[in-house]
Design goal:
Layout: E1 23-32, E2 37-46, H1 53-66, E3 80-85, H2 102-105, E4 124-129, H3 131-139
Parallel strand pairs: 1-4
Antiparallel strand pairs: 1-2, 3-4
Length: about 140
């Protein structure tokens, strides 16, 4: 059958169908863990091949400080990034942050590794938060609303 579409042929996933230099990331800015106060923004055409975790952190803080919608989020001293979920991967049960994979999903802001070296690809979701708040919430994950 010429011209027929094979329903079983595999299309490339959106996470691997784009070049690393034009990826889309969702950033989950966490103001409060217990109150589940989270606001997202999307970075489009982000360069995972040449940007480091520190570059991403700086770009996120710049966006928070320049957009009026994030005014209530400016009083937190953010200091950490962690992968929340990979594209097409399973989501965590916790709606605020992923408690799993602390050993390899927390990005090191002091090294020069590029984002793709952390396994970050198109459509990855990343949480931005204050580490001390995360550790306190992880020790006692009680939601207050």
């Amino acid at each position: 059958m010429s011209g027929a579409i094979d329903p079983y042929s595999e299309e490339p996933l959106t996470s691997s169908g784009r070049p690393l230099t034009t990826s889309t990331l969702t950033i989950r800015v966490i103001k409060s863990f217990p109150y589940r106060n989270v606001k997202n923004f999307v970075l489009q055409n982000y360069d995972l091949e040449n940007k480091s975790a520190k570059d991403l952190f700086d770009d996120c803080v710049k966006k928070i400080n320049s957009e009026g919608a994030f005014r209530p989020f400016r009083n937190v001293q953010y200091d950490s990034l962690k992968i929340y979920t990979h594209a097409h991967g399973s989501k965590t049960v916790n709606l605020v942050i992923n408690f799993d994979h602390d050993d390899n999903w927390i990005l090191n802001l002091k090294d020069n590794r590029k984002l793709y070296e952390y396994g970050i690809e198109n459509e990855t979701e990343i949480s931005l938060f204050k580490m001390q708040d995360y550790l306190e919430f992880k020790a006692n994950p009680e939601e207050k609303w």
